[in-house]
Every structure is written in C-alpha cells, then in structure tokens.
Amino acid sequence: MTSPQLVPATSPDPTASRYRDSVDEILAEFDSSLGGLAMAVVDQRRLEAGENVIVQVAKDSALKRYLRQFGDWMIVLLLVSAVITGFLGDLGTASVLVVLVAFNTLIGVVQEVRAEKTMEALEKLVDPSSQVFRDGTLTEVESRSLVPGDVIRLTEGSSVPADVRLITTTAFSTNDFALNGESDPTRKYATAIPHEVPLADRHNLAFAGTTVATGEALGLVTATGMHTELGRIARLSQSAPSTRSPLQVETSLIAKYVSYGVAVVSVVVLIIAVQADLPFKEALLFAVGFACALIPQGLPAEVNTALAAAAGTLARQNALVKKLNSVETLGATHVICTDKTGTLTKNEMTVSELLVGDTNYQVSGIGYQPVGAITPGPRSADAEARLVAMLTVGVFANNARLVPPDHEVTTWRILGDPTEGALLVAARKAGLDTTALRAGMTEIGELPFDSTRKLMTSIRRAEDGTTTAYSKGAPESVLARATMIDDGTIVRAITDTDRTALLAVHSEKASRALRNLLFARRELTGSDAESTDIAVIERNLTVLGLVSMEDPIRNAVPDAVAVVLGAGVKVNIVTGDFSITAEAIAHQAGLEGDGQLTVVTGTELATMTDATVLAHALRGGTVFSRVAPEDKVRIVDLVKASGHVVAVTGDGINDAPALRHANIGVAMGASGTDVAKQSADIVLLDDSFATLVGAIREGRTIYRNITKGVLSCLTSNVAEFVVNSVSLALASLLGVPLALNILQILAIDLLGEIFPIAALGNDPAEGETMKDQPRKAQAHILNRRSLVDIVVCGALIGGFAIANYLVFYGRAGLNPVTEPVPAALLAQAMSVTYATIMICQLVSIIQRRSLHGFFTRYQFTNRFFWLSIGLALSIMTVILYVPLVAAFFGTGPLSLIDWACAAAAALAFLGIREGTALTRRHLSRLTPVTTP
C-alpha cells in the first residue's frame, strides 16, 4: 500500500484537485476505504504528516523585549547621564535618573507587549476528539491524532477537525462564515465538481475550523494541521510584518533629533566649561545638566498617559483598545477596508418582504425576536388564508428551531439554518403557532436541499390522512417544476408570462440584497403519496408566493459612513460574499458618497495589476467581493506600501491575516471569532461601524492633544537650555554661579509640568474634527512653524527666568561678579529661576490648549487639567518651603516680591503670546483670498 501524496505546507491551494475527484478516486488516492485506515498505516502517516495541530510561532521573551527598549537614544542618554553623575558623587541626581530610565523602559515594554494569542485561538477551533473509522470500526480519538486518509463522521453541532472531502451526506450543511464571510450555512454534497470553482464554491469539501449546521456526513481527511486551509490562514497571519504606528515613527524621529543635538551640545559645553577654567568635575556636571535640560524626560510618560486616557474614553464607548498606539493610528487613517457580514450588517437573516399572488407585504422587525407586523392590514378572510397558507410552507419545509430567551441566553436564537429560522420568525409575526402546526402535521419524508435541484421538500401527513408536499427553493428551480399558481384570486395553470414576471421580481429584489425563496406545495394522492422518488414528488407544484429576506444593515451604518466620508477617509468593502449582495449593502450604506460605486470580483482581482488595485482602494467606494484571505492581504499591503494608513475591520478567521497586516486591525467583539479578536488592535464590543467612526474622531483628538503636549514639553526644554547657556557664559566670563542645578531641571520636567501636560490627553475635541482631511504621512509635529514657535517661547521663558535671577541679586544688594554668594542666598536665587520657568511654563501650557488662545470658553473644559495645574503648584510649593525637600533640591523660600517677579514674567509672556496670535489672526483676515 502506497501512502498518499501529502500536500506540502507551502502549497498555495491544498484543495486544488480534491473537489474534482469522484469519491472512488479520492479513496483510491489516499489508499483508504469506507472502513477507514488500518492502525499500522495511521502510525506511518502520522510520522509523515505530523500531528493535526496549528503550530505556534516562537515569541520574544519578556527580558528580550525589555532590553530592546534601550535602543532608544533618549534612554541611552539618560542612562549615561546617571552613570556620570553617580561616578562624580551626585548620588541623588543619579538615583532620580535611574528611576526615570526604569520607568520609561517599563512603559515601553507594556506598550509593546501584545496579546499574541492568534495561534492559540486557531488551535482551540479544533475539537479535542473526533469520531473516526479505524480498522472498520467507528471509534473516538483525539483530533490531534487524525491523519490524511482517515474517514471521520460529522454530526450536527460538531466542529470539523481537519480538511475533508465528503463521501456521503444527509441534509448536510456547515457554517463557513468564519472562513468565507457568508452568513448562510453552506449546503454540502458528495458528488464531484467537474470544473474549476473558487474555494467558497467547493461544496463537496468541509474545512477545519468550521462547524456542522445541519445533518451528518462521512468525510475523508485530505489535510491536517498546518496543511489545512486553516493552517494556510495561520501562516498568512504569522507572516504579518511588525510595523510601527505613525505616532511611534513621529516620537522616534523627535528622539533621534533631540539625542543628536544633546550629544553634540553637551560635548561643546564641556569643552567650553573646561576652557573657562571650571574644575573638570564641575564642568562635567554642568554638561550633564545641559543634557538633562535638553532631554524631554517626561515625553514618553506624557504621550502614553494621553493614549491611556483616550483608551479609557473609547472603552466607555464600546471600543476595547489592546494596543495604546492604535488609538492615535485610527485618527491618521486614510483608507478603511471593512468586512460586510456582521460589521455593516447584523448577521441575522430577517424576512422583510412577501409576495402572495399580486399583493406585496412588508414585514417589520429585525433579527430573531418574533416581534413585528405584516402590512398592509387588516386583510380580508381570503387574503389572510392565502398568506397563512404560504407562510405554512416555510414552517413545514424547515428543520430549524426558534428558541426563546432563558436563564443562560437572554436573546431569541436559532438552532439550525438561520434562513429557515427567519421563516419561523415571519410565521410567528403573522400569529401562527409554529409548534402546534408541526405537531398537527407529521413529517413522513424529506427531500433535502442539494445544489443541483436547489430545492427542499418536506412530506407531511395530517390527522385525516391527507398527504402534502411542501417545497421551497430557488425561484427558477421551483418554477421549472410548477404547473399551477395561486394568483391571489384563483388557483390556475401557470403561464410563461407568470414565470417571466416572477423571475423579474426575483432579479429586482436580489439587486437590493434580498435573498429570495419561492414557496410551493402539492397534494399527494394515490401512489404518489407513498413514493420517495424526487421526480415524482417534486412535480406539478402549485406556486403560493415569494419570500424575500435580508441580513439587515445596522441602523447606524449609513450615518456613520457619511461622517467618515466627510472626514476624507475612503471606505471599501472587502468580503467573501457574493457581489450582488455586497453591492446592494454598499448602496444602502451610502458607500459611494458623491462618486460611483465599483464592484471587483475575486476573479477580476486576480487579473488586475497592483497599480489598478491600489487605485481602486485609494479612490474608495469599491466592493471587492468573493475574495480569499490572500486577496485581502494583497489589498492591505498595497495601501500600506503607498504610504497611506489603512484600517481593516473583520470578524472571521479569514479576516485574521488582513487584520494583522493592516496598520490597525479592528475586530467585532460580539459576533467575531476569537482568532479575529486576538489578531486585532481594537475590538468593537458592540460590532458597530458607528463605534469605529467615534474611535477615529477620538484618534484625531488625541493626536491634537499629544501635539500640544509635545510642544509644551519641548518649550520648557528650550527655556532650560537658554538659562543654562547664559549661566555658562556668565560663569565662565564673570564667575556668576549657575542659575539652575540638575535636580531643579528634573523637578520642572518630572514633577511640575508632567501632570498638566498629561492631563491634556483628556481635552475634548475643538472645532469640526471630522470635517478635516486625514493628516498627510509627511506631516510632522516638529515642522518649521512649530520649531520656530518652540524656540521663541522657550527663549522668552528662559530670558525672563535669567533676568529674574540677576534682578534678585540686585534686590538683595549683592554683586555676584565681585562678591561671593552665600549658599542660602544662592538657593533663593536659583529658586526664583525655577519658579519663573515653572509659572511661565504653566501659562504656556494653558495658552496652547486652545486654538483660540488663553481667553476662550474652551478653557472651562476638562476639570482634570485644572486639578493638575493645582497639583503642579502644590508640588512647587513643597519643593520651595518644606525644609527636607528644599535641601534635596537645593532651593529656598521665596518672598512675596520674588513671587511678584515670577508672576510679572508670566504675564509679560502671556501678553506677548496673545498679542502675537491676535496680530496673526488680524493679518490673515486682511490677506485677500485669491482664486487659483
């Protein structure tokens, strides 16, 4: 016996030939039979194919992730500064710097660590045990022990443990939603498919990770573990590159430039200090102080605090943020590639329209709760009887059950096919007791649906002995077997005109994303009542009416799409569902905006160049239908490579690779699979596209808040640099003592400004946030305008501070150039410098909060900000007036006149800032607007 040719792990299509083989051919290929494999063969094949498990990728250890944080230049500079100050004997400053390094690196680890559980979630999709034939006996084994060639039994409610080629089926269907995005269960059969079809249409195959919706089947295992379709998706997920968010890129850029500047300036300062005859130890400490003045030590903490605040806000809005930087990434999104089923729609089939004779009925209510009405009404007795007769077909030709809420599940739910469940709900809305109806008509036979007939018939016998066949199916299939029609007035022979009219109605409704079933019945008499022949039963049918159902679009979706399109974000649908359904949903959602909707099928996508695919994605309003996971990844990677930020939404296993490849993956929390949720950066707990739009708004707001924080943070660094530069010049030329020490600089950066700047993260949106275009990838927080603003503001604050420092000596009646300065007086002088910088910096932060400056109603928002201002002032007071703390920082108490000088500096700074802003706004109004 030869072993079958196993599908290699790198095969792009492990099922390429399986669906085209007959049952005999597939059994022969795998040297198997209906009795299964011999145990000796099983052991050999397990050695060849390995265990039926999804292999996980090795992850970095926590230690490795922590050590990686030391690649940040800011961290390196702080660590070097700590080592130098400690070596020179300044243990207090060294300790503060070491704690700061530890804190920032810890934040980096927490930020970087993600819940890498995708592979674990994939593995959980395989049942721990399976029913398999071995040596001709049906037995139960661990699913991980299955091998190619095994014959397994699949029953309703069980999971499919491996990829299988079906051998026999009985009313068998599987829920493939997680793999192909189709909301309806997929009917399966065992016959070969002679021509090439896409994966979603290979209806004689069942795939690992899906579940059995109805019936039972025997299947031959053709692939296990990483060789399955599920394993192929797992490999796609594993191949996702590690990418940095726009904010990470921006902060890294800032860190890079600041680090280079600090290194160069510190060396220059050290050389100047030594040449100015300062002792080397003092010169080195001064150079370290310069470094500390330039390094925005609190920036990582401030940014992450702002992101955490935004994550908290989103959590209250049903958006769970798994990765902090993803909050801001959403705000930078240019393109959204959204799934359809479960994201734009509810993933709950609902009957919405009925056609009985020539009367069109509308059915209200959505979902599986049997609450709603059928209009128009009230109806005549005859019309009511015809409506009931038609709906009764959907009750009898039906294997589903409608289950009311109970102590475990608080919502109505369907057991079985969701489409059949929707028919029961419609009958209940018409007032029918579906349970009593079924009890009164005993089912004596069923002709299950198959893809050839596209029809399902239930044969039922009443208590009086009459036998009736109830049929439902595709309109064209029912019409081909119908000879009569109830036209709403009489039952008469059906004509070609009737058939044409019904098919036209069917096409029109299908174009609106409605799925249509035609209902018919036939009274069986004589020998026909005892026959089991399909051709005999399903003939001479009488058409009763057309049922139209939909997976309804979520109520908030159209408004949410309009908002996001107004914000300049392009939206595309990328789905495994059929193009006609997806296109109709796109129209209902308003996806085309003011442009034109474009539909691209998976087959068309395969022939398109990358440039054409990218053009469709960037233009937006494109429906990519019947696409495979690789197609989704291709679209996402093309958008990313073009420099645009792309967000992907999804809820199925087939969405996981795209979620991982995207700049930001957004999974559905309520209906999504564990795999999708573990692959995503953000999980929408309510599955609402509107929640995603709210998250984009929050992302844009947080970027504005972070920008305010970064500019404020760097402003104080420039001010400290100015003070130290002037101090160095005065010390080297005139012998004037330094105006600030290292600990006072750290007190400004880490104990003074950090809380107000962090509180900026709670600032609400200002202006029309969702009417702006997405920011360009080339746009940076630090640009020419912002750099000029930072330098001017920092120079003003630094200039006022050094002026107050020197004025203090004049008020004290001491000349620091010619006279020695007592330690207590020096502490007070340095305290004046410290207080001036602090108060001016707080005014600067307040002034930067609003686009309209200091004096605006916006200042009354965000109570946390004003509490943080109070906290900063309290900390400054403690540093100045509590003896032990003052001794540590080298400060001294200030008099009222000292405070008045600091306050005067702050008022002067504010006057200059507001005056400049007012002048700028006035000039902008005077500038004529030219038409290009």
| CATH architecture annotation name of the largest domain | Up-down Bundle
Measure the end-to-end span: 81 Å
CATH class of the largest domain: Mainly Alpha
Shape: elongated
Our estimate of the beta-strand percent is: 15-25%
Mean pLDDT: 84
Described by its quaternary structure, the protein is single chain
**Based on DSSP secondary structure assignment, what is the total number of beta strands?**
27
Q: What would the CATH topology of the largest domain be?
A: Calcium-transporting ATPase, transmembrane domain
Helix content: 40-55%
* Biggest sheet statistics: 10 strands, mixed
Number of helices: 33
What structural category do the secondary elements indicate? alpha+beta
Unreliable spans are 1-12, 114-123
CATH superfamily of the largest domain, please? Answer: Calcium-transporting ATPase, transmembrane domain
Radius of gyration: 36 Å
Q: List the domain count as a whole number.
A: 4
Textual characterization of the structure:
With 932 residues, this protein is an alpha+beta fold. Helices cover 48% and strands 16% of the residues. Strands 10, 11, 12, 15, 16, 17, 18, 19, 20 and 21 form a ten-stranded mixed β-sheet that branches. The chain has an eight-stranded mixed β-sheet with strand order 8-27-26-25-9-22-24-23, with helices on both faces. Helix 12 (325-331) crosses helix 26.
Record keyword descriptors for this entry.
single chain; 932 residues; alpha+beta; Calcium-transporting ATPase, transmembrane domain; 4 domains; 10-stranded mixed beta sheet; elongated
